[in-house]
Amino acid sequence: MTRDGPPFWAARYRQDPPGRMTQTQSDVExxxxxxxxxxxxxxxxxxxxxxRQDFRVSTLKIVALSLFQLGDHAALRQLxxxxxTDLDPDLTGLGLQLLVTERRWPDLHAAIRDRFTRHGLxxxxxxxxxxxxxxxxxxxxxxxxxxxxIGCPVRLPAFWAMLHSALPSLSEAAPxxxxxxxxxxxxxxxxxxxxxxxxxxxxxxxxxxxxLRALAADSACERVRVSFFARHSGAFLSVxxxxxxxxxEQVGLKQLASDLLLSAPADHPLSGLLSGLDVSSALPGPxxxxxxxDVFWSVYFSRLHSAFSHYPCRKLLFVHDLIGINxxxxxxxxxxxRFAAALPRMVALADGLVAQSQATRTDxxxxxxxxxxxxxxxxxxxxxxxxxxxxxxxxxxxxxxxxLAGRRLLLSVGxxxxxxxxxxxxxxxxxxxxRLPADAVLVLAGRFQPxxxxxxxxxxxxxxxPDRMMWLNVPSDTLLDQLYRACWGVALLSYxxxxxxxxxxxxxxxxxxxxxxxxxxxxxxxxxAHYVDPAKPGQVQDAVLRLFLDRGFHAGLHALSxxxxxxxxxxxAADLLAITATLHGAA
Length: 587
Known about the structure:
The protein is of the alpha/beta class. It has helices at 27-36, 40-53, 57-70, 73-82, 89-101, 105-119, 141-149, 152-155, 157-166, 189-196, 203-217, 241-251, 253-261, 301-310, 323-326, 334-349, 358-371, 399-403, 422-431, 453-464, 477-486, 501-508, 521-525, 537-549, 551-563, 569-586; strands at 184-187, 224-230, 235-240, 289-292, 314-319, 352-355, 377-379, 408-413, 440-446, 469-473, 489-492, 513-516, 530-532. It has a 7-stranded mixed sheet with strand order 3-2-1-4-5-6-7, with helices on both faces. It has a 6-stranded parallel sheet with strand order 10-9-8-11-12-13, with helices on both faces.
Protein backbone atom coordinates (compact mmCIF):
# COMPACT_ATOMS: atom_id res chain seq x y z
CA MET A 1 0.00 0.00 0.00
CA THR A 2 1.51 3.37 -0.99
CA ARG A 3 1.94 6.23 1.46
CA ASP A 4 1.80 8.88 -1.30
CA GLY A 5 -1.39 10.91 -1.35
CA PRO A 6 -4.74 9.94 0.12
CA PRO A 7 -5.36 6.24 0.73
CA PHE A 8 -7.49 4.81 -2.04
CA TRP A 9 -10.50 4.19 0.25
CA ALA A 10 -10.67 7.68 1.78
CA ALA A 11 -11.70 9.84 -1.17
CA ARG A 12 -15.33 8.76 -1.18
CA TYR A 13 -15.86 9.49 2.50
CA ARG A 14 -13.74 12.57 3.23
CA GLN A 15 -15.65 15.23 5.12
CA ASP A 16 -15.17 17.67 7.96
CA PRO A 17 -15.22 16.17 11.44
CA PRO A 18 -18.54 16.54 13.25
CA GLY A 19 -18.56 19.52 15.56
CA ARG A 20 -19.58 17.44 18.56
CA MET A 21 -16.23 15.63 18.56
CA THR A 22 -13.44 17.57 20.25
CA GLN A 23 -9.97 17.82 18.75
CA THR A 24 -8.43 17.04 22.13
CA GLN A 25 -8.83 13.37 21.41
CA SER A 26 -6.45 11.58 19.11
CA ASP A 27 -7.64 10.69 15.64
CA VAL A 28 -7.59 7.00 16.55
CA GLU A 29 -9.76 7.58 19.59
CA UNK A 30 -12.18 9.61 17.49
CA UNK A 31 -12.24 6.85 14.87
CA UNK A 32 -13.00 4.24 17.54
CA UNK A 33 -15.76 6.44 19.02
CA UNK A 34 -17.32 6.93 15.60
CA UNK A 35 -17.13 3.23 14.83
CA UNK A 36 -18.81 2.32 18.13
CA UNK A 37 -21.54 4.85 17.31
CA UNK A 38 -21.99 3.05 13.96
CA UNK A 39 -20.95 6.21 12.09
CA UNK A 40 -18.72 4.25 9.76
CA UNK A 41 -18.10 7.02 7.22
CA UNK A 42 -16.92 9.37 9.99
CA UNK A 43 -14.73 6.58 11.39
CA UNK A 44 -13.04 6.28 7.99
CA UNK A 45 -12.22 10.01 7.92
CA UNK A 46 -10.45 9.95 11.29
CA UNK A 47 -8.78 6.62 10.55
CA UNK A 48 -7.49 8.06 7.27
CA UNK A 49 -5.98 11.03 9.14
CA UNK A 50 -4.37 8.74 11.71
CA UNK A 51 -2.88 6.52 9.00
CA ARG A 52 -1.19 9.53 7.37
CA GLN A 53 0.82 10.09 10.56
CA ASP A 54 1.37 6.59 11.84
CA PHE A 55 0.91 3.18 10.20
CA ARG A 56 -0.98 1.46 13.05
CA VAL A 57 -2.69 -1.90 13.03
CA SER A 58 -5.47 -0.57 15.27
CA THR A 59 -6.28 2.09 12.68
CA LEU A 60 -6.24 -0.43 9.84
CA LYS A 61 -8.77 -2.51 11.78
CA ILE A 62 -11.09 0.47 12.06
CA VAL A 63 -10.77 1.12 8.34
CA ALA A 64 -11.39 -2.52 7.41
CA LEU A 65 -14.35 -2.97 9.75
CA SER A 66 -15.91 0.29 8.57
CA LEU A 67 -15.61 -0.77 4.94
CA PHE A 68 -17.18 -4.12 5.78
CA GLN A 69 -20.09 -2.47 7.60
CA LEU A 70 -20.59 -0.07 4.69
CA GLY A 71 -20.68 -3.00 2.27
CA ASP A 72 -17.75 -1.64 0.24
CA HIS A 73 -16.35 -5.09 -0.46
CA ALA A 74 -14.23 -3.99 -3.41
CA ALA A 75 -12.33 -1.45 -1.29
CA LEU A 76 -11.99 -3.95 1.55
CA ARG A 77 -10.55 -6.60 -0.79
CA GLN A 78 -8.06 -4.04 -2.08
CA LEU A 79 -7.05 -3.09 1.45
CA UNK A 80 -6.64 -6.67 2.68
CA UNK A 81 -4.79 -7.61 -0.49
CA UNK A 82 -2.25 -4.85 0.14
CA UNK A 83 -1.60 -5.98 3.71
CA UNK A 84 -0.03 -8.96 5.40
CA THR A 85 -3.19 -9.90 7.26
CA ASP A 86 -1.13 -11.88 9.73
CA LEU A 87 -0.57 -8.48 11.36
CA ASP A 88 -3.67 -9.12 13.40
CA PRO A 89 -6.14 -12.01 13.91
CA ASP A 90 -9.10 -9.65 13.45
CA LEU A 91 -7.92 -8.72 9.97
CA THR A 92 -7.50 -12.38 9.09
CA GLY A 93 -10.94 -13.20 10.44
CA LEU A 94 -12.46 -10.30 8.54
CA GLY A 95 -10.91 -11.56 5.33
CA LEU A 96 -12.43 -15.00 5.91
CA GLN A 97 -15.79 -13.47 6.74
CA LEU A 98 -15.67 -11.47 3.52
CA LEU A 99 -15.15 -14.69 1.56
CA VAL A 100 -18.19 -16.19 3.30
CA THR A 101 -20.31 -13.11 2.61
CA GLU A 102 -19.44 -13.32 -1.07
CA ARG A 103 -19.87 -17.12 -1.06
CA ARG A 104 -16.40 -17.67 -2.52
CA TRP A 105 -16.06 -21.20 -1.20
CA PRO A 106 -12.91 -22.29 -3.10
CA ASP A 107 -11.06 -19.15 -1.91
CA LEU A 108 -12.31 -19.75 1.63
CA HIS A 109 -11.16 -23.36 1.45
CA ALA A 110 -7.66 -22.32 0.35
CA ALA A 111 -7.43 -19.58 3.00
CA ILE A 112 -8.37 -21.87 5.87
CA ARG A 113 -6.01 -24.61 4.74
CA ASP A 114 -3.26 -22.00 4.48
CA ARG A 115 -3.89 -20.84 8.06
CA PHE A 116 -3.66 -24.37 9.44
CA THR A 117 -0.63 -25.24 7.34
CA ARG A 118 1.40 -22.19 8.36
CA HIS A 119 0.22 -21.62 11.91
CA GLY A 120 -1.44 -24.75 13.27
CA LEU A 121 -2.98 -24.12 16.65
CA UNK A 122 -1.71 -20.53 16.75
CA UNK A 123 -4.00 -19.53 13.90
CA UNK A 124 -6.82 -17.13 14.83
CA UNK A 125 -9.31 -19.96 14.93
CA UNK A 126 -11.94 -18.11 16.90
CA UNK A 127 -12.39 -15.74 14.00
CA UNK A 128 -14.27 -18.51 12.20
CA UNK A 129 -17.21 -18.15 14.59
CA UNK A 130 -19.24 -16.18 12.06
CA UNK A 131 -18.99 -19.01 9.56
CA UNK A 132 -21.50 -21.09 11.52
CA UNK A 133 -24.57 -19.77 9.76
CA UNK A 134 -22.93 -19.60 6.34
CA UNK A 135 -22.32 -23.34 5.74
CA UNK A 136 -19.53 -23.35 3.16
CA UNK A 137 -19.97 -26.57 1.22
CA UNK A 138 -16.53 -27.03 -0.36
CA UNK A 139 -14.33 -28.07 2.58
CA UNK A 140 -12.83 -31.48 2.04
CA UNK A 141 -12.16 -34.40 4.31
CA UNK A 142 -8.40 -33.82 4.20
CA UNK A 143 -8.79 -30.58 6.15
CA UNK A 144 -10.82 -32.27 8.87
CA UNK A 145 -8.27 -35.08 9.09
CA UNK A 146 -5.47 -32.53 9.32
CA UNK A 147 -7.16 -30.69 12.19
CA UNK A 148 -7.59 -34.03 13.95
CA UNK A 149 -3.88 -34.61 13.50
CA ILE A 150 -2.86 -31.39 15.23
CA GLY A 151 -4.95 -32.19 18.26
CA CYS A 152 -7.80 -29.69 18.03
CA PRO A 153 -10.34 -32.04 19.60
CA VAL A 154 -8.18 -32.14 22.72
CA ARG A 155 -6.84 -28.58 22.82
CA LEU A 156 -9.85 -26.68 21.50
CA PRO A 157 -13.02 -28.72 22.03
CA ALA A 158 -15.45 -25.81 21.77
CA PHE A 159 -13.81 -24.54 18.59
CA TRP A 160 -13.66 -28.03 17.12
CA ALA A 161 -17.40 -28.43 17.52
CA MET A 162 -17.90 -25.02 15.95
CA LEU A 163 -15.58 -25.87 13.05
CA HIS A 164 -17.43 -29.12 12.39
CA SER A 165 -20.70 -27.22 12.22
CA ALA A 166 -19.23 -24.69 9.82
CA LEU A 167 -17.30 -26.99 7.51
CA PRO A 168 -19.15 -30.07 6.20
CA SER A 169 -17.11 -32.42 4.08
CA LEU A 170 -17.04 -32.50 0.32
CA SER A 171 -19.42 -35.43 0.47
CA GLU A 172 -22.09 -33.01 1.70
CA ALA A 173 -23.11 -31.11 -1.40
CA ALA A 174 -24.85 -27.75 -1.37
CA PRO A 175 -28.50 -27.60 -0.28
CA UNK A 176 -29.22 -26.19 -3.75
CA UNK A 177 -28.63 -29.64 -5.29
CA UNK A 178 -31.51 -30.76 -7.52
CA UNK A 179 -34.11 -32.56 -5.40
CA UNK A 180 -34.48 -36.29 -5.83
CA UNK A 181 -37.72 -37.16 -7.61
CA UNK A 182 -38.26 -40.48 -5.90
CA UNK A 183 -40.03 -41.31 -2.68
CA UNK A 184 -38.41 -41.23 0.75
CA UNK A 185 -39.28 -44.19 2.97
CA UNK A 186 -38.56 -43.54 6.65
CA UNK A 187 -38.56 -46.85 8.48
CA UNK A 188 -40.22 -46.56 11.90
CA UNK A 189 -40.56 -50.26 12.79
CA UNK A 190 -38.78 -50.08 16.14
CA UNK A 191 -40.39 -46.77 17.01
CA UNK A 192 -43.87 -48.22 16.46
CA UNK A 193 -43.07 -51.51 18.22
CA UNK A 194 -41.96 -49.63 21.33
CA UNK A 195 -45.21 -47.65 21.35
CA UNK A 196 -47.39 -50.72 20.80
CA UNK A 197 -45.92 -52.41 23.85
CA UNK A 198 -46.62 -49.37 26.00
CA UNK A 199 -43.03 -48.24 26.31
CA UNK A 200 -42.29 -44.71 27.43
CA UNK A 201 -41.03 -42.44 24.66
CA UNK A 202 -37.29 -41.91 24.91
CA UNK A 203 -35.76 -38.59 23.97
CA UNK A 204 -34.66 -39.98 20.61
CA UNK A 205 -38.11 -41.38 19.89
CA UNK A 206 -39.73 -38.08 20.80
CA UNK A 207 -37.30 -36.40 18.43
CA UNK A 208 -38.21 -38.83 15.63
CA UNK A 209 -41.86 -37.98 16.10
CA UNK A 210 -41.15 -34.24 15.95
CA UNK A 211 -39.10 -34.71 12.79
CA LEU A 212 -41.95 -36.63 11.16
CA ARG A 213 -44.34 -33.83 12.08
CA ALA A 214 -41.99 -31.26 10.57
CA LEU A 215 -41.63 -33.30 7.37
CA ALA A 216 -45.42 -33.53 7.13
CA ALA A 217 -45.56 -29.72 7.20
CA ASP A 218 -42.96 -29.40 4.44
CA SER A 219 -43.99 -28.85 0.82
CA ALA A 220 -42.21 -32.11 -0.09
CA CYS A 221 -44.37 -34.18 2.27
CA GLU A 222 -46.11 -35.99 -0.60
CA ARG A 223 -42.79 -37.72 -1.34
CA VAL A 224 -42.38 -39.10 2.19
CA ARG A 225 -43.78 -42.42 3.36
CA VAL A 226 -43.46 -44.16 6.73
CA SER A 227 -42.41 -47.79 6.34
CA PHE A 228 -42.62 -50.60 8.90
CA PHE A 229 -42.52 -54.39 9.19
CA ALA A 230 -45.97 -55.77 9.95
CA ARG A 231 -45.40 -58.97 11.90
CA HIS A 232 -48.99 -60.08 11.41
CA SER A 233 -48.69 -60.28 7.62
CA GLY A 234 -44.91 -60.81 7.46
CA ALA A 235 -44.40 -57.94 5.02
CA PHE A 236 -42.81 -54.53 4.83
CA LEU A 237 -45.56 -51.98 4.35
CA SER A 238 -45.72 -48.22 4.10
CA VAL A 239 -48.23 -45.44 4.52
CA UNK A 240 -48.18 -41.83 3.32
CA UNK A 241 -46.66 -39.53 5.94
CA UNK A 242 -49.66 -37.21 5.84
CA UNK A 243 -51.98 -40.17 6.55
CA UNK A 244 -49.65 -41.30 9.33
CA UNK A 245 -49.85 -37.90 11.06
CA UNK A 246 -53.60 -37.55 10.50
CA UNK A 247 -54.25 -41.00 12.02
CA UNK A 248 -51.95 -40.16 14.91
CA GLU A 249 -53.97 -37.03 15.71
CA GLN A 250 -57.16 -39.07 15.57
CA VAL A 251 -56.31 -42.15 17.66
CA GLY A 252 -53.09 -41.37 19.55
CA LEU A 253 -49.65 -42.95 19.49
CA LYS A 254 -50.37 -46.34 21.05
CA GLN A 255 -53.40 -47.09 18.85
CA LEU A 256 -51.53 -45.82 15.77
CA ALA A 257 -48.73 -48.29 16.45
CA SER A 258 -51.13 -51.20 16.87
CA ASP A 259 -53.09 -50.29 13.76
CA LEU A 260 -49.98 -50.15 11.59
CA LEU A 261 -48.08 -53.15 12.91
CA LEU A 262 -51.18 -55.33 12.52
CA SER A 263 -51.83 -54.06 8.99
CA ALA A 264 -51.91 -56.21 5.88
CA PRO A 265 -51.06 -55.51 2.22
CA ALA A 266 -53.79 -55.01 -0.37
CA ASP A 267 -53.82 -58.67 -1.50
CA HIS A 268 -54.10 -60.01 2.07
CA PRO A 269 -57.48 -61.26 3.38
CA LEU A 270 -57.27 -58.84 6.31
CA SER A 271 -56.47 -55.84 4.13
CA GLY A 272 -58.09 -52.68 5.46
CA LEU A 273 -59.93 -54.46 8.27
CA LEU A 274 -57.53 -53.59 11.05
CA SER A 275 -56.06 -50.18 10.43
CA GLY A 276 -58.44 -48.43 8.07
CA LEU A 277 -55.30 -46.91 6.52
CA ASP A 278 -54.25 -47.07 2.89
CA VAL A 279 -51.14 -49.20 3.38
CA SER A 280 -48.98 -50.29 0.48
CA SER A 281 -46.64 -53.22 0.00
CA ALA A 282 -44.90 -51.62 -2.99
CA LEU A 283 -41.12 -51.86 -2.63
CA PRO A 284 -38.84 -48.81 -2.92
CA GLY A 285 -37.47 -48.42 -6.47
CA PRO A 286 -34.13 -47.21 -7.84
CA UNK A 287 -35.09 -43.54 -7.56
CA UNK A 288 -36.31 -43.94 -3.97
CA UNK A 289 -34.53 -43.70 -0.62
CA UNK A 290 -34.95 -45.98 2.38
CA UNK A 291 -33.92 -44.26 5.62
CA UNK A 292 -33.69 -46.44 8.73
CA UNK A 293 -33.96 -43.83 11.44
CA ASP A 294 -34.66 -45.81 14.59
CA VAL A 295 -32.49 -48.58 16.06
CA PHE A 296 -31.48 -51.19 13.50
CA TRP A 297 -29.95 -53.73 15.91
CA SER A 298 -33.25 -54.71 17.58
CA VAL A 299 -35.24 -57.92 17.13
CA TYR A 300 -36.00 -56.65 13.62
CA PHE A 301 -32.36 -56.62 12.57
CA SER A 302 -32.61 -59.59 10.20
CA ARG A 303 -35.62 -58.05 8.47
CA LEU A 304 -33.97 -54.65 8.10
CA HIS A 305 -30.73 -56.23 6.92
CA SER A 306 -32.67 -58.19 4.30
CA ALA A 307 -34.38 -54.99 3.12
CA PHE A 308 -31.02 -53.27 2.84
CA SER A 309 -29.69 -56.24 0.88
CA HIS A 310 -32.48 -56.61 -1.66
CA TYR A 311 -34.20 -53.28 -2.21
CA PRO A 312 -32.80 -51.51 -5.32
CA CYS A 313 -33.20 -48.05 -3.73
CA ARG A 314 -30.61 -45.83 -2.09
CA LYS A 315 -30.18 -46.72 1.57
CA LEU A 316 -29.45 -44.31 4.39
CA LEU A 317 -28.60 -45.51 7.89
CA PHE A 318 -29.04 -43.25 10.91
CA VAL A 319 -26.47 -43.76 13.67
CA HIS A 320 -27.16 -42.11 17.01
CA ASP A 321 -23.63 -42.52 18.33
CA LEU A 322 -20.69 -44.94 18.51
CA ILE A 323 -20.58 -45.06 22.30
CA GLY A 324 -21.14 -48.82 22.35
CA ILE A 325 -17.94 -49.25 20.34
CA ASN A 326 -15.80 -46.34 21.56
CA UNK A 327 -16.27 -46.83 25.31
CA UNK A 328 -15.16 -50.23 26.63
CA UNK A 329 -17.18 -49.67 29.80
CA UNK A 330 -20.35 -49.75 27.71
CA UNK A 331 -19.55 -52.94 25.83
CA UNK A 332 -20.97 -55.10 28.60
CA UNK A 333 -24.47 -53.74 27.93
CA UNK A 334 -26.43 -56.21 25.80
CA UNK A 335 -27.85 -53.57 23.45
CA UNK A 336 -24.36 -52.21 22.81
CA UNK A 337 -23.04 -55.67 21.98
CA ARG A 338 -25.89 -56.04 19.49
CA PHE A 339 -25.07 -52.64 18.05
CA ALA A 340 -21.36 -53.46 17.68
CA ALA A 341 -22.23 -56.70 15.87
CA ALA A 342 -24.86 -55.17 13.59
CA LEU A 343 -23.17 -51.93 12.58
CA PRO A 344 -20.50 -53.31 10.20
CA ARG A 345 -23.06 -55.46 8.38
CA MET A 346 -25.49 -52.59 7.86
CA VAL A 347 -22.81 -50.04 6.99
CA ALA A 348 -21.44 -52.32 4.27
CA LEU A 349 -24.86 -52.25 2.55
CA ALA A 350 -25.65 -48.57 3.09
CA ASP A 351 -25.18 -45.94 0.38
CA GLY A 352 -24.79 -43.24 2.99
CA LEU A 353 -24.73 -42.72 6.75
CA VAL A 354 -26.45 -40.03 8.79
CA ALA A 355 -24.96 -39.04 12.13
CA GLN A 356 -26.73 -37.21 14.92
CA SER A 357 -24.00 -34.59 15.22
CA GLN A 358 -20.74 -33.53 13.63
CA ALA A 359 -18.88 -35.23 16.49
CA THR A 360 -20.60 -38.54 15.71
CA ARG A 361 -19.94 -37.93 12.04
CA THR A 362 -16.21 -37.79 12.80
CA ASP A 363 -16.48 -41.04 14.76
CA UNK A 364 -18.28 -42.70 11.86
CA UNK A 365 -15.68 -41.52 9.36
CA UNK A 366 -12.96 -43.13 11.47
CA UNK A 367 -15.02 -46.30 11.84
CA UNK A 368 -15.41 -46.53 8.06
CA UNK A 369 -11.64 -46.33 7.71
CA UNK A 370 -11.24 -49.34 10.03
CA UNK A 371 -13.65 -51.27 7.80
CA UNK A 372 -11.89 -50.25 4.58
CA UNK A 373 -15.07 -48.51 3.38
CA UNK A 374 -15.69 -45.15 1.77
CA UNK A 375 -19.24 -43.91 2.23
CA UNK A 376 -20.65 -40.39 2.44
CA UNK A 377 -21.40 -39.42 6.03
CA UNK A 378 -23.86 -36.62 6.74
CA UNK A 379 -24.67 -34.82 9.96
CA UNK A 380 -28.34 -34.33 10.77
CA UNK A 381 -28.11 -32.02 13.76
CA UNK A 382 -31.26 -32.08 15.87
CA UNK A 383 -33.34 -29.12 17.00
CA UNK A 384 -33.21 -26.95 20.11
CA UNK A 385 -36.86 -27.43 20.99
CA UNK A 386 -39.06 -27.44 24.03
CA UNK A 387 -40.87 -30.61 25.01
CA UNK A 388 -44.20 -28.75 24.99
CA UNK A 389 -45.12 -25.63 23.02
CA UNK A 390 -44.92 -22.21 24.61
CA UNK A 391 -47.92 -21.35 26.69
CA UNK A 392 -49.22 -21.38 30.26
CA UNK A 393 -47.61 -23.85 32.62
CA UNK A 394 -50.83 -25.76 33.25
CA UNK A 395 -51.64 -27.90 36.26
CA UNK A 396 -48.67 -29.17 38.23
CA UNK A 397 -48.71 -32.92 37.75
CA UNK A 398 -46.29 -34.16 40.39
CA UNK A 399 -46.82 -34.01 44.15
CA UNK A 400 -43.05 -33.94 44.46
CA UNK A 401 -42.85 -30.86 42.26
CA UNK A 402 -45.58 -29.20 44.34
CA UNK A 403 -43.47 -29.71 47.45
CA LEU A 404 -40.52 -28.15 45.66
CA ALA A 405 -42.43 -24.97 44.76
CA GLY A 406 -40.38 -21.89 45.53
CA ARG A 407 -37.07 -23.75 45.65
CA ARG A 408 -34.24 -23.47 43.13
CA LEU A 409 -33.74 -26.71 41.21
CA LEU A 410 -30.61 -27.87 39.42
CA LEU A 411 -31.95 -30.34 36.85
CA SER A 412 -30.14 -33.17 35.08
CA VAL A 413 -32.03 -35.50 32.72
CA GLY A 414 -31.17 -38.92 31.31
CA UNK A 415 -31.18 -42.68 31.81
CA UNK A 416 -28.93 -43.76 34.67
CA UNK A 417 -25.54 -44.84 33.33
CA UNK A 418 -21.97 -44.30 34.43
CA UNK A 419 -21.25 -42.17 31.36
CA UNK A 420 -23.98 -39.65 32.17
CA UNK A 421 -21.95 -38.22 35.05
CA UNK A 422 -24.86 -38.28 37.51
CA UNK A 423 -22.65 -39.55 40.33
CA UNK A 424 -20.05 -36.85 39.68
CA UNK A 425 -22.74 -34.16 39.74
CA UNK A 426 -24.42 -35.54 42.89
CA UNK A 427 -21.10 -35.89 44.74
CA UNK A 428 -20.11 -32.33 43.85
CA UNK A 429 -23.50 -31.05 45.01
CA UNK A 430 -23.24 -33.01 48.28
CA UNK A 431 -19.70 -31.77 48.92
CA UNK A 432 -20.86 -28.16 48.49
CA UNK A 433 -24.20 -28.53 50.25
CA UNK A 434 -23.18 -26.67 53.43
CA ARG A 435 -22.19 -23.65 51.34
CA LEU A 436 -25.20 -23.74 49.04
CA PRO A 437 -28.39 -21.79 49.81
CA ALA A 438 -30.99 -23.74 51.76
CA ASP A 439 -33.40 -23.62 48.83
CA ALA A 440 -30.98 -25.28 46.38
CA VAL A 441 -32.10 -28.77 45.32
CA LEU A 442 -30.59 -31.28 42.90
CA VAL A 443 -33.20 -33.12 40.81
CA LEU A 444 -32.16 -36.03 38.59
CA ALA A 445 -34.84 -37.24 36.19
CA GLY A 446 -34.93 -40.25 33.90
CA ARG A 447 -34.97 -44.02 33.93
CA PHE A 448 -33.46 -45.32 37.17
CA GLN A 449 -31.64 -48.64 36.76
CA PRO A 450 -31.31 -50.14 40.27
CA UNK A 451 -29.01 -52.99 39.16
CA UNK A 452 -26.16 -50.59 38.31
CA UNK A 453 -23.43 -49.74 40.86
CA UNK A 454 -24.15 -46.05 40.24
CA UNK A 455 -27.65 -46.61 41.62
CA UNK A 456 -26.24 -47.66 45.00
CA UNK A 457 -23.92 -44.64 45.08
CA UNK A 458 -26.74 -42.23 44.33
CA UNK A 459 -29.12 -43.89 46.77
CA UNK A 460 -26.61 -43.44 49.58
CA UNK A 461 -26.29 -39.74 48.75
CA UNK A 462 -30.08 -39.31 48.57
CA UNK A 463 -30.50 -40.95 51.97
CA UNK A 464 -27.97 -38.54 53.52
CA UNK A 465 -29.65 -35.49 52.00
CA PRO A 466 -33.33 -36.44 51.50
CA ASP A 467 -34.56 -32.84 51.30
CA ARG A 468 -31.86 -31.63 48.93
CA MET A 469 -31.37 -34.40 46.36
CA MET A 470 -33.79 -36.71 44.55
CA TRP A 471 -34.40 -38.90 41.51
CA LEU A 472 -37.68 -38.73 39.56
CA ASN A 473 -38.05 -42.06 37.78
CA VAL A 474 -39.34 -42.11 34.17
CA PRO A 475 -40.98 -38.69 34.23
CA SER A 476 -43.74 -38.01 31.73
CA ASP A 477 -43.25 -35.39 29.04
CA THR A 478 -45.64 -33.12 30.95
CA LEU A 479 -43.57 -33.38 34.11
CA LEU A 480 -40.31 -32.89 32.18
CA ASP A 481 -41.74 -29.73 30.63
CA GLN A 482 -42.67 -28.47 34.10
CA LEU A 483 -39.22 -29.28 35.47
CA TYR A 484 -37.46 -27.44 32.64
CA ARG A 485 -39.68 -24.40 33.09
CA ALA A 486 -39.28 -24.30 36.87
CA CYS A 487 -35.58 -25.10 37.27
CA TRP A 488 -32.79 -22.67 38.19
CA GLY A 489 -30.36 -24.33 35.78
CA VAL A 490 -29.66 -27.47 33.75
CA ALA A 491 -26.56 -29.66 34.05
CA LEU A 492 -25.33 -32.53 31.88
CA LEU A 493 -21.92 -33.97 32.73
CA SER A 494 -21.82 -36.83 30.23
CA TYR A 495 -18.53 -38.38 29.20
CA UNK A 496 -20.00 -39.16 25.79
CA UNK A 497 -23.14 -38.20 23.86
CA UNK A 498 -24.31 -38.62 20.31
CA UNK A 499 -26.17 -35.34 20.54
CA UNK A 500 -27.18 -34.35 24.08
CA UNK A 501 -30.92 -33.73 24.05
CA UNK A 502 -31.12 -32.33 27.62
CA UNK A 503 -28.65 -29.63 26.61
CA UNK A 504 -30.60 -28.63 23.49
CA UNK A 505 -33.81 -28.68 25.53
CA UNK A 506 -32.28 -26.59 28.31
CA UNK A 507 -31.17 -24.11 25.66
CA UNK A 508 -34.68 -24.01 24.18
CA UNK A 509 -36.08 -23.15 27.62
CA UNK A 510 -33.45 -20.43 28.01
CA UNK A 511 -31.92 -21.98 31.13
CA UNK A 512 -28.34 -21.52 32.42
CA UNK A 513 -26.29 -24.55 31.40
CA UNK A 514 -23.43 -26.40 33.09
CA UNK A 515 -22.16 -28.87 30.51
CA UNK A 516 -19.40 -31.41 30.03
CA UNK A 517 -16.74 -30.47 27.51
CA UNK A 518 -16.83 -33.92 25.90
CA UNK A 519 -17.85 -35.21 22.44
CA UNK A 520 -20.88 -33.48 20.90
CA UNK A 521 -21.95 -31.28 23.81
CA UNK A 522 -19.94 -28.15 22.89
CA UNK A 523 -21.45 -28.43 19.42
CA UNK A 524 -24.98 -28.45 20.85
CA UNK A 525 -24.56 -25.57 23.32
CA UNK A 526 -21.96 -23.46 21.51
CA UNK A 527 -21.02 -20.41 23.58
CA UNK A 528 -24.18 -20.56 25.68
CA ALA A 529 -22.87 -22.89 28.44
CA HIS A 530 -20.29 -23.08 31.20
CA TYR A 531 -18.10 -26.08 30.39
CA VAL A 532 -16.48 -28.39 32.94
CA ASP A 533 -14.42 -31.55 32.84
CA PRO A 534 -16.66 -34.15 34.53
CA ALA A 535 -13.59 -36.03 35.76
CA LYS A 536 -12.45 -33.00 37.82
CA PRO A 537 -14.63 -32.70 40.95
CA GLY A 538 -13.24 -29.27 41.77
CA GLN A 539 -14.45 -27.83 38.48
CA VAL A 540 -17.91 -29.31 38.91
CA GLN A 541 -18.25 -28.15 42.51
CA ASP A 542 -17.08 -24.63 41.64
CA ALA A 543 -19.61 -24.41 38.80
CA VAL A 544 -22.48 -25.54 41.08
CA LEU A 545 -21.52 -23.01 43.75
CA ARG A 546 -21.27 -20.16 41.26
CA LEU A 547 -24.63 -21.04 39.73
CA PHE A 548 -26.38 -20.57 43.08
CA LEU A 549 -24.19 -17.95 44.78
CA ASP A 550 -23.03 -15.68 41.96
CA ARG A 551 -26.02 -13.78 40.60
CA GLY A 552 -23.94 -12.27 37.80
CA PHE A 553 -22.74 -15.71 36.72
CA HIS A 554 -26.32 -17.05 36.67
CA ALA A 555 -27.68 -13.99 34.85
CA GLY A 556 -24.89 -14.14 32.26
CA LEU A 557 -25.55 -17.81 31.47
CA HIS A 558 -29.27 -17.14 31.37
CA ALA A 559 -28.79 -14.34 28.83
CA LEU A 560 -26.49 -16.48 26.69
CA SER A 561 -28.99 -19.32 26.66
CA UNK A 562 -31.93 -17.09 25.76
CA UNK A 563 -30.14 -15.34 22.89
CA UNK A 564 -28.20 -18.30 21.47
CA UNK A 565 -29.03 -19.30 17.87
CA UNK A 566 -31.36 -22.28 17.83
CA UNK A 567 -32.50 -24.79 15.22
CA UNK A 568 -36.10 -25.86 14.96
CA UNK A 569 -37.52 -29.09 13.56
CA UNK A 570 -38.32 -27.44 10.24
CA UNK A 571 -34.56 -26.85 9.83
CA UNK A 572 -33.89 -30.53 10.56
CA ALA A 573 -36.55 -31.65 8.08
CA ALA A 574 -35.09 -29.41 5.37
CA ASP A 575 -31.61 -30.81 6.05
CA LEU A 576 -32.88 -34.38 5.75
CA LEU A 577 -34.51 -33.64 2.40
CA ALA A 578 -31.26 -32.02 1.21
CA ILE A 579 -29.28 -35.10 2.31
CA THR A 580 -31.51 -37.45 0.30
CA ALA A 581 -31.20 -35.17 -2.73
CA THR A 582 -27.43 -35.10 -2.35
CA LEU A 583 -27.23 -38.88 -2.08
CA HIS A 584 -29.03 -39.30 -5.40
CA GLY A 585 -27.13 -36.43 -7.00
CA ALA A 586 -23.83 -38.06 -6.08
CA ALA A 587 -25.02 -41.35 -7.55
